[in-house]
Fold this protein.
Amino acid sequence: MVQALEGGDGRYARAMRRGMIAAAVCGALLALAPAAQADEVPSCNAEDELVDLTPPRWANAGKQFAVPVDVTRADHVREFTMTVDGQPAGVTLGPDGDGTLYLDTPSRSGRFELTASWQQTGVAAGDLPLCRQEFVYDVYAVAPNARIGREEPRIDGRWNVVFRPTGRTPGGASRTRWRFTPDCAVGACALRAVLDGSVRYRLVPDARMRYSIPRSRLDASWARCGPVRHGADSVLQYGFEVVGSQLVDGVVGERATRISGRATITYTPTPAGRRAGCRTVVYPFVMSGVRVGG
């Protein structure tokens, strides 16, 4: 048919050939489309994920950092790969999957991307489906020798802290100004605290990130027994924890904005005071603080 038409109008014949070729190509693509869709592996639902990674927020530039891995049913995880700043990390999962992976931090400081991807093989009907998963994490490289704290709200900067008496403690609220300086470059750790520009303390958090001063002797203390003042040994004890924070973009992470806790001042009279009838007294306070600047 095409040859017959070429004798009368070659342009029409060529157009017909182009139309036939286009139709053939479209038909082939339509035939291939279901197969391509069938080969595409869907993303895993959160409840079906078999791999749980806990990468750090910070790592020392040029050194290794650890990524704890917890794998459920490692025999159904395949093609597990990780990249650091776009480069293959060269790590593999162990036979049981669980453990810690050690990766190299880029030599430059700043943010880099850590990616992890894998496939989960399909198993029996009604069980886990065939699926794939990929996560991208932001990690920040800090100076090679910088101290990295715990991934908890960071206390730093200038604070207004109020001590309010409770129970039978005499007097009103005491408003103080504090400056907190962490011992670490990032994260939460021990603090150097300066009260009202002169009194200095060091605070070390416990396992629950509660900061405290076990005992701190105060100067120029006295106890009143009737109309007479007598010297006394006074000790301040207090502890507080973070009760408010905000997420800060970049290397800082989570920063504390409010703290709350309790304090006591214990007055122990001198021998002369005890002879005059003075007794040891404990005055409790509640304390609350708000961050006001860097």
